[in-house]
Amino acid sequence: MTEHGIGVSVKRKEDRRFLTGNGNYTDDINRPGQTYAYFLRSQVAHAEINGVDTSAAEKADGVVAVFTGADLAADEVGGLPCGWGLTFQNGDPMVEPAHPALAQGKVRHVGDAIAVVVAETKKQAKAAAQLIEADLNGLPAVVDMKKAIEGGTLVHDEAAENTCYDWAIGEKADVDAAFDGADHVTSIDIVNNRLIPNAIEPRVALAEYEAASGDYTLYTTTQNPHVIRLLMGAFVLQIPEHKLKIVAPDVGGGFGSKIFHYAEEAVLTWASAKVGRPIKWTAERSESFMTDAHGRDHVTHAELALDKEGTFLGLRVQTLANMGSYLSTFAPAVPTYLHATLLAGVYTTPLIYANIRAVFTNTVPVDAYRGAGRPEATYLLERIVSKAAREMGIDQVEIRRKNFIPSDAFPYQTPVALQYDSGDYEATLSAALEAADVDGFAGRREAAARDGKLRGLGYSTYIEACGVAPSAVAGALGARAGLYESAVVRVHPTGSVTVFTGTHSHGQSHETTFAQLVSEQLGVDFEAVDVVHGDTSKIQFGMGTYGSRSLAVGGEAILRAANKIVDKGRKIAAHILEASEADIEFADGSYTVKGTDKAMAFGEVALAAYVPHNYPHETLEPGLEESAFYDPLNFTFPGGCHVCEVDVDPDTGVVDVVNFTAVDDVGRVINPMIVEGQVHGGVTQGIGQALLENAVYDENGQLLSGSYMDYTMPRADDVPSYHVSTEETLCAHNSLGVKGVGEVGAIGSTPAVINAVVDALAEKGVTDVPLPASPQNVWRAIQEAGA
Amino acid sequence: MPDSIDIPPVVVTATVNGERVSRAVEPRMNLVDFLREELELTGSHIGCEHGVCGACTVRVDGTIVRGCLMLAVQADGAQVLTIEGLSESGEIADLQENFKTRNAAQCGFCTPGMLMTAAELLAENPGAGRTEIREHISGNFCRCTGYQAIVDAIEETGKNRGEK
Known about the structure:
heterodimer, A: alpha+beta, Aldehyde Oxidoreductase, domain 3, Aldehyde Oxidoreductase, domain 4, seven-stranded mixed β-sheet, five-stranded mixed β-sheet, 20 helices, globular, B: alpha+beta, Ubiquitin-like (UB roll), DNA polymerase, domain 1, 2 domains, 6 helices, elongated
């Protein structure tokens, strides 16, 4: 291990700019001659558009142009594409309605864009938008999924019963038979609440067209610039890749919400050529609430069959998954590929059946949000397992231990398609029990009772599938793109290194972690390695950052490119040192002839590659730059155990998280400090879902939680400090042994919190608490149980 | 309509990061827009425009304010300090170092506002405990870190200042 190598908490390169106000976020960029866009958005959830009169707006001060859906249609601008196709159980393709960038014919959610005004200033654009007369014929809104599938009002005429797809996994007859023979069946109804991701940086887009070359540039707040280039270029605007550059500079958080291709990106890029000037749009926070894809929103009925000892025999799940009004980029994948396939969890449940019905409603589109499907699967499992243990009088830890996939059973094939490569659930569980001082809980509960508080303890033992890739698996499950990653390692003549990665860092510290990898692999100084991301004109290709994939997929691509550098260097060194290639050893940045003191430093080899006076020209090209594409053989499977302790005030319903312990297995840890930070952030978002956050619509489709005053996110005084640690089992199919850490916190934590609240309230007769366990919901649960 | 009425610009003169600046601006311009757009000081960020997230926190005449809730014209004659000036002054060099050591920034978007708020607490009460620190920074949203590393960094800075 070197000072900046693998396993060291190296301080972040990013902080030099972030801590001094020198970050370069999209809204910090301005272009000469820039204009500003303002989108007129629907204030109603569902209406026919009879006409849009823009004549007054066009004459307003400073207005450059006004465009509507009709202008896009006239120019044959395509709709926003969906990147994932699924089928009904009978094989019919899912219903995939058009998703125009500016509404055409109907508006389908509050916030749906009707027109865009381009003006000299932001305020002029906004003022002129108020002069647009949109003649709307209001329609009833469909908000509740259970009502939506009864038919009646349709969000899209072609989607009968508002159903996008009705999909299933598992053999239902076999699972039903297991239930018939069960000694005990536990049932649960769960509403996995709708969340709004709310990165603190709102979305921004700045588009520029250069008439002389025909080149477009779009600066945008995205997690995956090449994906935006592909989706927008090929499907919406028909701009070939070599004429379209996407730049995603510093991005202020994403959590999934900045994966997707959004309407504003396409409209601005298209309009920048129409007006011949750069156009900038910066979302106001209320627009973020109304237009950023939301997360979660599942309504599930689940049943677990057990024998009398508490061994799981089968699991049956029925889920309604809200798609919102249109299909966002990866929406269909979330409840299926990222949720139903995770329903084995860490358990040996032999038979599983899940039926997923995706439903259109007059709400903002729903798509991946930190964890994406896996938090919903984990919540369902950990709640039903806890409930079963309580019903059967089995200890919460024992029921989990009894059903764990044992550590010697890997590779383990689940009944729902996935094959887990490695893990040790007992190790993370026992470490968590010790770290959380579970033995001392009874005493703490008594002490809390003396203060009038009800103390509860909750567990969650979870797994996730991440390192989102295997293109072949994703393709078989409906992905319309590959999910590999690419990297270029460029060694400069004097031995410094630039690494180009197709992943994108928006808080994940790639500039540091990837530099650590390359520094260790090539034996060059950490400071001599820079990482470049977020610019399609600099990086050959990439699929971006989501699904905890950057290190497990992107890091491995970098490692492979670096290994090619080492191999080429060996050839150069062998030539210069007049030795056979097989006799050259590379270690600590030096090529040595085995058993001799003849050696060349890595920097000398780099120089020789660019000043090739003494060089094997017949067999080797000059230069020292290598590229790699890496498509893994499998997902990675981080897992772990979260233990939460809460105090509930029975008079007010207020829940305090008093202790939270997370022991996660994320594979090999490159930078422990950064890993810890990822877990802290994820756990806080998970606690946010459990106790605070909730997107609420009224029956007319108005978003009631449409500002920070109404949508409650965790603040510093809402959460405690956590006990976080890791237990490593190595990923079996990548050479780093890494699994991924971005989402574990958000996946494991929510059920641990709610299980703790239910445990605290058990003596009051409460068996379930809805998400979020707000004071009102908890107080009501206590009253209803006591009634 | 507001824009059909010709509102004459108002001259705002203030000392920003130690430098006297004067600009003619619309009377309704927010202070943070003034800093970002007129002075190109883009270290102050805009997260919500309604005073809830704290990303635009700056110091005016020694007190921290929300740059989105104060008009530029209200800062006429004032001393304004942004993250750029605060960094350059060296006042929070120790805090910034502890932010690095504890990994108290991730995406960096809330960070300038968080540092402005923490700087105020450290100046007033360097001995603040973790609960007081959490309360003091509770007006600043951070969606990435879960706050723990930020609390660690502020606590450590305060301890070290107390020892000096």
